[in-house]
Structures are given as C-alpha cells and as structure tokens.
Amino acid sequence: MGKRVALVLAGCGVFDGSEIHEASAVLVHLSRGGAEVKIFAPNIEQRDVVNHLKGSPAEEKRNVLVESARLARGNIQDLAELKASEFDAVIFPGGFGVAKNLCSWAVDGKNCTVNEHVNSTLQAFHSAKKPIGLCCISPVLAAKVFPGCEVTVGQDKNVDGRFPDAETASAIAELGCKHICKNVNESHVDKANKIVTTCAFMCKAPLHEIFDGIGTMVQEVLKLA
C-alpha cells in the first residue's frame, strides 16, 4: 500500500499563497511514488492579496482555505481536521503565503509567530517520528518550531546572483538551527528529526531543475515514511 501523505497549502499564487509550480511538482512526485495524498489548508484570512499581474497589493480579502481549493481541485480540508495518526508524512510547499499566512516570517523574520494549527501539525508529526518535507521558504517553519534542527534554503551566499534571499540562511542560524548549503537539484535530510528540505524557488534556476530538486525531497520523505 502506498504511503499516506498530507499536503499543507497556504493559498494560491507565489506572492500571497502557495507557489503553484512547487505544489504541482510535489503532487506529481507523490503520485509517481504511489502515495495517497490528502490536501489541507488553514481556514483563515490571507495576510494580504497581491495582484499577480501588476505585482501590487489588491484591496480585497481572500480566505486561505478557499484559495488553496483552487490548487486542490476542490478536494481539500480544513487544517484543523488533520490528524497525524492518519498519515505517514506531511509536506509543505513554499510560496510567500507560507511566510505570510502560515507564519509571520515575511513581517517579523526570525521573531515570527507560527499559526496554531501549523504548529500543532508540525509538532504532532515530529512527536510521532513521522517525516516532514519542506521546500523553498517553508523550512523556516521547522527552524522556528524545532530549534537545533538542520534545514536548507539553498546557499548562504548569493552565488552568481542565483540566491537573492541567501540572508534567510543567516536568520535560520540565529534561531539556533544549522543551515546546510545545497544546490537546487539536491535536498537535505535531517535524520535525527526526520525533516527533509530543498530550496526550490529560493534559487533562480530553470523550472526543470526546481522540479527535480523537489523530487529528491519527496523521494527522501517517502523513504523515511
């Protein structure tokens, strides 16, 4: 029987929700790995709404669960209903929605707070020694919730201009965690905590390289499950 994996979304769209290509890549690799997937998102208002055509704020309100339902093709549940006992692993794609809706990293950096249901989900899987997969900016969730863990968001220096958000690695280190430098086609496995991370769009790279890197993360999560 395939592994049972929960996928947690943060909205729909790179600037105010889940990064669509990352979420899709995770789903494709989970499908290829024979996993049974259920999708969740918190039933909360988005921190903001961004007009993705203009790249500017929009004067409207949107709900994270309702917007995430676009990516889930309508088949989604409130994150409050997720029970770790019913799954073998959990995965969080990236996107600014992670840093805005699942936590307040976009505003508060390392001093951020984490949404209560996101925090309880992470704690439940960790306590049950079940793997947690994170990509792009979402490794900051683990860094905040699990001091001392190991994660990667790519490189800690802006190598060849490909890692414009390299300072995130320093903020992770300031939280007492260890940042591991990895290329876009690689992932890092924190074996002690069963946390698997990859940088995805934290690196300016061709889409297929990001897709392949996410694939290594998914594969490692399924191995640990």
From TrEMBL:
Q: Which residue spans traverse the membrane?
A: none
Taxonomically, which superkingdom?
Eukaryota
Fetch the InterPro entries from UniProt. Class_I_gatase-like
Entries under NCBIfam families matching the protein: PRK11780.1
The protein here is known as GAL3A protein
Please name the taxonomic classification of the source. Answer: Eukaryota, Metazoa, Chordata, Craniata, Vertebrata
